[in-house]
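Following the same procedure, backbone shapes were mapped to integers, as reproduced here:
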Amino acid sequence: MYSFFRGHLARALRMAGIMASLVLPSHVSAQVASLPAFNVDIKETSVSGLSSGGFMAVQFDVAYSSILRGAGIIAGGPYFCAHGNVNTATTICSCTGIAFFCQVAPGATNVPALIKITDQNANDGAIDATSNLVNHKIWMFSGTADTLVPQPVMNDLERYYRHYITNSANIHYEGSIAAQHAMPTDFFGNSCATLGAPYINNCNFDAAGELLKWIYGSNFSPKNTGALGGKFVEFDQSEFVDDHNPTAHGMANSGFLYVPANCDKTQNQPCKLHVVFHGCLQDPTNVQDKFVKDTGYNKWADTNNIIVLYPQAAPIFPLKNPNACWDWFNYDDPDYAKKSGRQMSAVKLMVDRITGSPIASPTPSPIMTCFTATNLDHVRAGRAHDNAFFAQANGSNEIMGLDNIFITTTLKKTGPNFYVIGTCP
């Protein structure tokens, strides 16, 4: 099942006919512009995200660790947790498939294996050197009542980060609040125990403010509790995607930017940049402008000279990505967790533009390696193994059928000695 939240596929299908006509309300943005540049040091960039956005924030933080200060993760999980497999994503890294099949448990994500894959990707140059992570500031939140990404997944994320960040004082983990799967705020949303749209809950806890203070230091100015003084910018995301067709790859045509008054180009004030990845079903087609306006980031950004980038995912109907999740399990790009991943590189190009860094044209992601052979030949080649007369793909342990010469299977390699049943683009 390719939807991230169980039970929403039918709703997503009903939206297929209207999604193209839905845009952020006019009071947020008047017209789509080209993303502008500002006076921002790229080394003052950080990321955060909820749910699929939490997994995406971890991917981005690990892959581009050389440019980032840190990350805030709410209900996410370790880097490459899904191994490019939707079944692993919805049963091991979350409980978002069929509840009966959920296998979330302490240590189930196999952090040592994920560390090995991370190190291999770094050695291959597919992500930045892991040594860059050592000084990152990591802020984590997991609600004790979260039924979709239960705490064992976030506990594994903490274990993953502590392997690379030896100073335990750089990691803060808030796991004591009885919150459901949502972005916690202190001013807007459903009750803290509610699971439902817009997946923003008033838990009397300001997650956005806490994570920003953790990443950038505690000497923040108090947040703006009145009318915001900055402006929202709706910008064209297509120029950052290799084929300029973002909706074919799970990204919206437009993204959004909040620019405090002090950070306007006419002021030339040095500013910071924070990138926020929304969760599934939190794009404008589902929650209008609520995630961009009502999660609390802008209140702190306004008084602390932080530009907030809200890149936007989009649905791909009917089954590929109906709930507008970020690609953390290979629904679009087999290199989704690497710097060359289509969504990853698109957001990095946005960061480059905002910070005035040298920017290159987006390049297509390499084609993933696939092998089509009989099950017996897969076993003989070391891509699969025999288990009680059945062939199982190495890594994912997906059952391919009987281990014989009569059944042919295509296996896709998504990591070192990790194969899934599927096809390559």
Q: What stands out?
A: Residues 370-421 form one domain.
